[in-house]
Amino acid sequence: MKILKKGINAWCFPDGFEIEYCIKITKEAGFDGIELNMEEANPTRKDIRLSLSSTEEDIVKIKRMSEKYGLELPSISTSLCWKYQLSSGDNAVRMQGMALVRKMIDAARILGADTVLVVPGKVDEKNSYEDTYNRSLQALKELAPYAESNKVCIGVENVWNKFLLSPLEMRCYIEDIGSPYVRSYFDVGNVLSFSYPEYWIETLGGLIKKVHVKDFKTETGNITGFTGLLEGDVEWDRVVDALGRISYDSYVTAELSPYKLFPEVLIKQTSMAMDAILRR
Questions:
Q1: What is the pTM of this model?
Q2: Which alpha helices (DSSP H) does 78-128 contain, by range?
Q3: How many domains are there within the chain?
Q4: 14, 111, 112, 129: most buried, per Cβ within 10 A?
């Protein structure tokens, strides 16, 4: 079993924490890297953030921060794909979604990250399953050459969006796009309410570019069931064994909600839990 890299998403810190402090605490807790998040432009914020209005100079400053502490920046996530959906029936919204992904790719290239996380779309009362599939597929096909030219992979995440609900469908979707720069960003906790993460790993195999981890209590069965690592029902030994069988050797990144009090404690606890899970 290869030693997997251990990462944490910046969402594990409260919103008011500055990036450099998050990087510092992440390094001190023993992580290999931190996943930053692309935010909406906010002119009232005076600290450096990774946002739609970030200049190249801003992004370089963030990179220098990570280099100062010897911490990698392997990937970029965002919540903005929910707002600017690649599957929207509104062409203007789809164009905004594509611009968002390009901005993330640009930032990733400067930071030295090799992956951007993308939520492909959402099925709802206004957007049918077939329309969501076709619109998002076309958008990602158009974005793939840009990702390839920048050597940054688009990682399609499985989320609670009533879409791509099986590993076979996710595999076919990615294969239909037909680019080595569009792959799966597999979230272990997101499938536990209706499936088994180890089977997703087995089916997706080499299509998995990055992995997110969180735990989930199946008895709860709704969004409040998400919980800290080792506090839920994920069979971590089966997950890690499955990753070993597909020779996965990149980042496993924790994505959890921050504590209201003493948020640094979550970072330390998560590091310890991941060491146990990853057999480090």
A1: 0.97
A2: 91-111
A3: 1
A4: 111
